[in-house]
């Protein structure tokens, strides 16, 4: 009806125009005719360009339906088209499924005209602008709103439409006053793929009217749910690591602006009230007093509006400011006031009855988000000068860094070092190749002060740069935790994530962008073949590329030396033998691939080596082109499966077949060589026939790679591995009950959450002792740093098993681990291989692909896929 009324009004105007034209023709007064013509055309065009409300544009009231992403895009385009003096719209990228990613810049007409100069000046305030001109603090503050990072937390994108409309609505004079002091940036939907997955599903199951009964199917989202992106990644935890396509594109724009205020919009369980700042402890120590103070300003202003409307809310609980890769913490570590706002609403659909007996609607949820958004704009406008000044101060006088420089040793770790360089570049952290010299500093591995030497290929990060605070956070070996009840992992130190030797120094080290090392590119064909060192993900990508082209690849089980060069276990060998089909282009194919995957291809002139075993010995094995399958679906962790899927498709670029775990009984096992079981719960392991079928396939030559809880399940299903019992628990059970403290079971109810922390391992780093003579550990030293997220360890494997990675006593490195959990985490298996008939089961009890940023675990996973059993 609203659209019909709009067109009727236009027709009426045209009719009036025609009548006026006719009357003027009668009087033959051309001057009056021309003047009247211009006047009416102006009125007509002004009417035609009226900014439509979301309701007028969509044809329904916000909150009565979920809006598909393409309609949100179209609405933002329409607003930008009808208010070009206040809105600039930019598409900054696309999702994996091809949906556009947008930013809307909203400002007063005066400020929109100089938008680019405001941006550059803001980077000058941060010391990042290339021109290094003196910044001007007399400038608008920048407020950035990010909506719908979790696709099924869908109310916020609806609120984004109401937000942009009210910012440009001529009738809303208040927002025009606020915009005199601000530039507002809106990302209406960070995760369009996840949003549309949820919206399309919901619209397919909801009836004529929404059913608010929580038992209704419209409140029971199927696997994998809409929370994550195309590859089932939780992008809310990807801000610093930037492993996902959407994040990489967004963060490029974010670091081109660096706002003073950033709000990340979320939803939580529908029984929870609204959450807004101030956040819970722990706050990271680099967070400034001003950043804490402004959270109080926001919280009190939000509370004013919520109190006025009688809406429930809470603050200072659950959501802390510690882990560096969230939508609140990453902005904080980049000078902004970063905040998370959480509306109750996951699985609520259009309406749901919560445990209080109240009906929560989509209209309620979006209104709450809209209210906190406007409240944030109000407070930011009132404090814009202070926001800009404190932002400038944050970068001019950063918190005292732990070290003046970080020297990262090359040590032939080309793969992981290259990945670290990419991460630094994406976060605008300056680095260079270190000048030679001898220094004293803190050895991350030993935890002691030692002498160290800077050599060719080593890189250095000096902390006299704008991103000092972020560097401190990402590199700190031991974080100071003011409260151990954290929302996420408590250790992420990049030297351990990347498996690199790092020294923290008390002096700045000279550096250059020119690499003093020369790469062995376009190596001359010496007639026999090429050797490629197995030292990181780049070499694994090279291997995958060769196998896809059906090129025969061998690998060395033992070290060897040829042509004066030493090669370690796992070195790839591509010989003309068995590769006659590319004989005429052999050198070209290998060198092109080496360049593509950034590896060195070393030519070898003979199968006779200087030291070690010759290339025709049984110490040189063929690597098969394996058919790999991944279990997904009900019971499987969508995030765990997503990590593997993303790794194969976006990093290895190697084919993988996704199979629903519920279909395991219909699998044609002859077409599968490797079966990957990510974290999850597998019902079929409780089915005797299905479990036996899986065992028979392994014995006939199949290979299982089990991760995390899949290992725990196999340990209870007679597959050969056993979970380690806590020795202290066993002693307690054997004690005479009469000797037990009769008050030991008395606990305070209010302390129940903290009492359980003694068993908690939210994410801490442990050193794993590796048997790097086994193919599972090829390419590694005799240790690996793992992220422990549970207290599961396993008994050492006996007959037919290889204990490749074990935790021994005192192998804790950093992060929080409860006292009981720490007692259990010793003298047990973490990574192992069980031989069964002609097949193997590879046990990876920890997540070696954690959020795709735990870079040093990726080669271990590739070893499991390609090396073990060959």
Average per-residue pLDDT, rounded, comes to 91
Radius of gyration, CA atoms, in whole angstroms: 31 Å
Task: Give the helix level as a range of percent.
Answer: 25-40%
Shape: globular
The computed structural class is alpha+beta
**SS strand fraction:** 15-25%
First-residue to last-residue Cα separation: 70 Å
Poorly predicted runs of 5 or more residues: 1-11, 18-23, 43-48
- Helices, by number, come to 26
E-strand count: 36
User: What can be said about the biggest beta sheet?
Assistant: 10 strands, mixed
Can you offer a commentary on this structure?
There is one protein chain. The chain is of the alpha+beta class and 870 residues long. The chain is built from 26 helices and 36 strands. Helix 7 crosses helix 13 and helix 11 crosses helix 13. The radius of gyration is 31 Å and the shape is globular. The chain starts with a helix and ends with a helix.
